Amino acid sequence: MIRVGIVGGTGYTGVELLRLLAGHPDVEILAITSRGEAGTPVARYFPSLRNRVGIDFSDPASTNLSSCDCVFFATPNGVAMGQVRPLLEAGVKVIDLSADFRLQDIATWERWYKVKHVAPDLVAEAVYGLPEVNRDRIREARLVANPGCYATAVQLALIPLVETDLVDCNHLIADAKSGVSGAGRKAEVDFLFSEASDNFKAYAVMGHRHHPEILQGLRQSAGKDVGLTFVPHLVPMNRGILATVYARVTKEADFQKLFESRFAGEAFVDVLPAGSQPETRWVRGSNMRRIAVHRPSGGDTLVVLAVEDISEGRRRTSGPEHEHRVCSEARARSTRPCCREGFARRLAVFGIRSSRMTIRSHLAWYWRWLLNVVMMAAVGDGGVGGREQLPNHRFRSRRGQQIAALGDENVPPQERSGGRKGERGRTRAASGHRQGRAERARAQRHATSGRERRP
What we know:
Blueprint: E1 2-7, H1 12-22, E2 27-33, H2 42-45, E3 57-58, E4 70-73, H3 84-89, E5 93-96, H4 106-113, H5 120-125, E6 127-128, H6 131-140, E7 143-145, H7 149-164, E8 172-178, H8 193-196, E9 201-202, H9 210-222, E10 228-234, E11 241-248, H10 255-262, E12 269-271, E13 289-294, E14 301-308, H11 312-315, H12 339-349, H13 356-379, H14 398-406, H15 419-453
Parallel strand pairs: 1-2, 1-4, 2-3, 4-5, 5-7, 6-7, 8-10, 12-13
Antiparallel strand pairs: 8-11, 9-10, 11-14, 13-14
Helix pairs in contact: 7-9
């Protein structure tokens, strides 16, 4: 049994890590620290973990983590680097889910994260926790730096290409979309429901923190310098990442077979059949990544689609950490087309004219039909009184209402409900009623006009 401790367990990172570890048969969770929630049962804070995690949050200042075999840091950037050294000296394996030990270049890390690194000597020892690249080193490492989510998606989509030098490595493009929960459990205007919902935007276009991390991994795989343009986007969904990468082909090869052979032995990477178009919901709540390879129109541009869960990068060594850095540019107003224009386009698909009157009449018919369906569903055909007491009398003819009031035993056989004959009877009765009403109106007009001509 592996004894595990977690530092920082109240964010999205912590709850995802707890969910995974609670279901592991060989893991025992000894401690979960939180300054603000010390003494609170974990199951009360996260009801989804009831009957799975039975301990309380503890104060990190008074919690002894040295008795653990492994400790996860699910903390903000800059915390782990100041606390991991005593644990490493005590023989505890540390997995840092933040970005403190991902970048080997200390100057680059300090430039992006705006903090002075307090443990630069440990950076050289830390192993980048991407199992598809460093599996053997991860097994032997004391300190593992867990990859970021964007970095994981983009690297695995490009590593098979840069390893074989089949594409132009100087002009790679990565276009990635991420859900809102990747920003973490915090209150910021950009991630409020009214701001993120019904909206889609790029951010950090001038530079994202995961960009140097991606470049570092690709350079190590390619053995040379690599050029990459990386643009992240925020989409109004809770979790999930879709990364679309573009590369110009320089040498011909069977790229589908290349990806299949590269990830043939990987349990958490699924190369989809040719022509597939993966969706984020295909990997929701899982540790899988699904990759599809395309070459549009047989041209010289290769397109690789990779989808993963929002915490996929962190879950590889098993917990989520993800940080959005929203660019400071002003947010553009939404330019969503009005409902009438969207409805007109849908009508055009069925060959229906999209004039304003046509749209209004079709909408009126639709709402009448929908109201009738809802009322019938609310009462049900098998309810008390049967069909004839359904509250849809507004939509019947007057004769149909009379039949409903009298009952089948008091109406002529040809007009009784049930069967095709009853339906024809009701139709004829309704049409006769309409015809009689028209004749009475015509006679009334003639009578009126005759009185006006009398002297």
